[in-house]
Design goal:
The chain has 16 helices and 35 strands. It starts with a strand and ends with a helix. The relative contact order is 0.09. The protein binds guanosine-5'-triphosphate and magnesium ion. The site of guanosine-5'-triphosphate has 22 residues, from helix 1.
Length: 603
C-alpha cells in the first residue's frame, strides 16, 4: 500500500488557506519549474479569482519524500461552511489556520467545533506572523481557550503549533527560531496526522463528498476510498442516502496531482479520487462492491437558512441585454446548479418563479453572478430567512457576529444592533483604538445591516458572522430606515434633473442611464419613498442642451454591487439582473398600483 496522508485546510475567511496550499505545492516540488501558475492557484474559477475568495473546496495531491499527501482546501466564508463539514469526514487530520493578528473569528469557532466533534486531530498554524500588528502569543492563548471551551479531548488539546508567513513560504515551530521553510509543516503532517485506516483487501467502500460536472464525461463524484480497491471499468453499487441501491460502472477513474487531473487505472483504500460514469451519483453516496454493498454513515448536509425568489425579468427593459430570458431557460439553469450544488435547494413557486434556498447572501449572489456571465436575465426578490418549527416552536436561524470598531463609534453601533435584537456577549480592546464586540443575533436582522454598519463606522468597521443555530423566533426587527427615490417616468437620465434630486438622498445611478417608471434610482434621506423625475431637461429653453448639462457638478453616485443591492431591497422591491446591469425596482411600477397594494396589505 502506498503511504498516504489526508488533510483539510480550514480557517476563517482570508486567514491564508489557499496561500498556504500554494506554498505546499511549490515547496514539495509539485509545480514543475517551467510550470506557470497564478497566486492562489487553487482558486481556479473566475469568480474566485476576481473576489480573492475560495467558493468551492478543492483537492490536490502532492508528494513529499515517499508520501502522497492529499490536501483539501476549503472555503472560509460562512456561507460555504457546509462544504467544510463534508470535507472533514474525508480526511484524517487538519491544518487549522488562524491569523496572528485577527485571532479567533466566528468561522474559526465554527470549523474548530466541527473538527473536534468529528474527532480530528489538528495542527494549528498561526499565520501572517509577518504582519506588524501580529500578536502570535495572544492568538495561541485564544486557540487554547477555544479548544477548552469546546470540550476538546486531551489528545486534541495537545496540538502542534506552527508559526507561518504563508505568503512568504516561511514557517517555524517556535517564534524564537530562525525563519525556516515549510519542511516543518510537511513533517508535522507526516508525524501527527494519523495514517488512513481501512484495507485495500476489503470490499470497496468509497464516499462521495463533492460533485463536479464535465461536458464530456458528465457527473463526476470526488470520493475518499475507505476500503477496498477500485479499477477503471469496475461495476459498482451506489448506496444512496435514502437506502436505494443503484448499479453503476466506473467509466473513468481520475487521480489528482498538483493542479492536474489524470486518468488512472486503479486506486485503493486511503486515497482520494474521482469517479465518472454514474449520472445518479450524489454527495454522500457510498460507492460499494456490488457483491457486498455496505453503506457508510450518511453525510449530514447543512440545511439552507435563506431563500430568495428568482423570476423571469418583466421590467420594461427586459430582454435587451441578456440572451436567456425565458422561464424554461431559467428553470433549466437552476436545475443544473442543483445537480452539483448540494447546499442549495430549488422549488418552483409559480409561473416563472423559483425559490432558491442557500446558506447566505454570498452563496446566492455567487449563483446570480455566474448566471449573469452566462447571459441570463432575471429578477431576484429580497432574501428571507427560513423559519421552521422545532418541537412545536417557531424558530429562526441565529448568527454569531463579531465586529471590530473604532472605540468612539462603538456606542452608536451597539445601539443600532440593540434595535435589531442583537445580544452582546463580550467586548474587548483590540489595540489601535479598536474594540472587538461579539453578539448573537437573528440572521434576519443582519440582512441589510452591512451597508448601515459601514456608514455608521465610516467604512472602518469590520464585521464577520457565521451560523450558530435555530432558536425561537424573536419577532419584528428594525429594517431599512430610509425610503427609495423612485423614477416617475421612462427615459434617460439627465444631469440637470439628477442635480436637483441629489440633495434628497444618495443616487445609485449616473447620467445617460436608462430608467423606467417604478425603477429605484437612489436612497431617500427620509424614511418614506419619494417619486422623482430624473429625465427632465433644463426648463427655460425647453431644449435639452447637453452643453449646459456639462457645467453641472454631480456628486459621484453610489455603485450598488449585487450583494449590496440584494441586502438593501425591501419586500416590495426587486433586483433586475442582466449581464450588463443591476437595477433596483419596485415590484409595482406605478404609484397607483403601489397605493392600491399598500391598502391591501397594511404594514
Ligand atoms: N501578510 C500576510 N498576508 C498573507 C499571508 N498569507 C496570506 N496572506 C494574504 O491574505 C489574503 C487571503 O489569502 P487566501 O490564501 O486567499 O486566504 P483564504 O484563507 O484561502 O481565504 P478564503 O478561501 O476566501 O477563506 C491574501 O491577500 C494573501 O496574500 C501571510 O503570511 N502574511
Ligand atoms: Mg481560500
Amino acid at each position: 500500500m502506498q503511504k498516504i496522508r489526508n488533510i483539510a485546510v480550514i480557517a476563517h475567511v482570508d486567514h491564508g488557506k489557499t496561500t498556504l496550499v500554494d506554498g505546499l505545492l511549490e515547496q514539495s516540488g509539485t509545480f514543475a519549474s517551467h510550470e506557470h501558475h497564478d497566486e492562489r492557484a487553487m482558486d481556479s474559477n473566475d469568480l474566485e479569482k476576481e473576489r480573492g475568495i475560495t467558493i468551492l473546496s478543492k483537492n490536490t495531491a502532492i508528494r513529499y519524500k515517499d508520501y502522497k499527501i492529499n490536501i483539501i482546501d476549503t472555503p472560509g466564508h460562512a456561507d460555504f461552511g457546509g462544504e467544510v463539514e463534508r470535507v472533514l469526514k474525508m480526511v484524517d487530520g487538519v491544518l487549522v489556520l488562524v491569523d496572528a493578528y485577527e485571532g479567533v473569528m466566528p468561522q474559526t469557532k465554527f470549523v474548530v467545533k466541527k473538527m473536534l466533534a468529528l474527532g480530528k486531530k489538528p495542527i494549528v498554524v498561526i499565520n501572517k506572523i509577518d504582519k506588524p500588528s501580529a500578536d502570535p502569543e495572544r492568538v495561541v492563548d485564544e486557540m487554547f481557550d477555544l479548544f477548552a471551551d469546546m470540550d476538546a479531548t486531551d489528545d486534541q488539546q495537545d496540538f502542534p503549533i506552527v508559526y507561518a508567513a504563508a505568503r512568504d513560504g516561511i514557517a517555524k515551530m517556535d517564534m524564537e527560531d530562525e525563519d525556516g521553510d515549510f519542511e516543518c509543516i510537511f513533517e508535522a503532517i507526516i508525524n501527527d496526522v494519523p495514517e488512513p485506516e481501512g484495507d485495500a483487501g476489503n470490499s470497496l467502500q468509497a464516499q462521495v463528498f463533492t460533485l463536479d460536472y464535465d461536458n464530456y464525461v458528465g457527473k463526476i463524484g470526488i470520493s475518499r476510498i475507505f476500503n477496498g480497491t477500485v479499477s477503471k471499468g469496475d461495476n459498482v453499487m451506489l448506496a444512496k442516502a435514502d437506502g436505494a441501491m443503484v448499479k453503476g460502472k466506473i467509466s473513468k477513474l481520475i487521480g489528482f496531482h498538483g493542479l492536474n487531473r489524470m486518468e488512472i487505472d486503479q486506486a485503493e483504500a486511503g486515497d482520494i479520487v474521482a469517479f465518472a460514469g454514474m449520472e445518479t451519483v450524489d454527495v454522500g453516496d457510498t460507492v460499494a462492491d456490488p457483491a457486498n454493498p455496505v453503506p457508510l454513515d450518511p453525510m449530514h448536509i447543512e440545511e439552507p437558512t435563506l431563500t430568495v425568489v428568482f423570476a423571469v425579468n418583466d421590467s420594461p427593459l427586459a430582454g435587451q441585454e441578456g440572451k436567456h430570458v425565458t422561464s424554461n431557460k431559467l428553470r433549466e439553469r437552476l436545475e443544473f446548479e442543483m445537480r452539483t450544488n448540494v447546499a442549495m435547494k430549488l422549488e418552483t413557486v409559480g409561473e416563472g418563479k423559483f425559490k432558491v434556498s442557500g446558506r447566505g447572501e454570498l452563496q446566492i449572489t455567487v449563483l446570480a453572478e455566474n448566471m449573469r456571465r452566462e447571459d441570463f436575465e432575471f429578477s431576484i426578490s429580497r432574501p428571507e430567512v427560513i423559519v421552521k418549527e422545532i418541537e412545536g416552536v417557531k424558530c429562526e436561524p441565529f448568527e454569531h457576529l463579531v465586529i471590530d470598531v473604532p472605540e468612539d463609534l462603538s456606542g452608536g453601533v451597539i445601539e443600532r444592533l440593540g434595535k435589531r435584537k442583537a445580544e452582546m456577549k463580550s467586548m474587548l480592546p483590540m489595540g489601535q483604538g479598536f474594540q472587538r464586540i461579539e453578539f448573537e443575533i437573528p440572521a434576519r436582522a443582519l440582512i441589510g445591516f452591512r451597508g448601515q454598519f459601514l456608514t455608521d463606522t465610516k467604512g472602518e468597521g469590520v464585521m464577520n458572522h457565521s451560523f450558530l443555530e435555530f432558536r425561537p423566533y424573536t419577532g419584528g426587527v428594525e429594517s431599512r430606515s430610509y425610503g427609495a427615490l423612485i423614477s416617475m417616468t421612462d427615459g434617460e437620465t439627465l444631469a440637470f434633473s439628477l442635480f436637483g434630486i441629489q440633495d434628497r438622498g444618495v443616487l445609485y445611478i449616473g447620467v445617460q442611464t436608462k430608467v423606467y417608471e417604478g425603477m429605484i434610482i437612489g436612497e431617500h434621506s427620509r424614511s418614506n419613498d419619494l417619486v422623482v423625475n430624473p429625465i427632465k431637461g433644463k426648463a427655460q429653453s425647453n431644449v435639452r442642451s447637453s452643453g449646459a448639462d456639462e457645467a453641472i457638478k454631480l456628486v459621484p453616485f453610489r455603485n450598488m454591487s449585487l450583494e449590496r443591492a440584494l441586502e438593501w431591497i425591501e419586500d416590495d422591491e426587486l433586483l433586475e439582473v442582466t449581464p450588463k446591469s443591476i437595477r433596483i425596482r419596485k415590484k409595482f411600477l406605478t404609484e397607483n398600483e403601489r397605493k392600491r397594494e399598500s391598502r391591501k396589505t397594511p404594514k
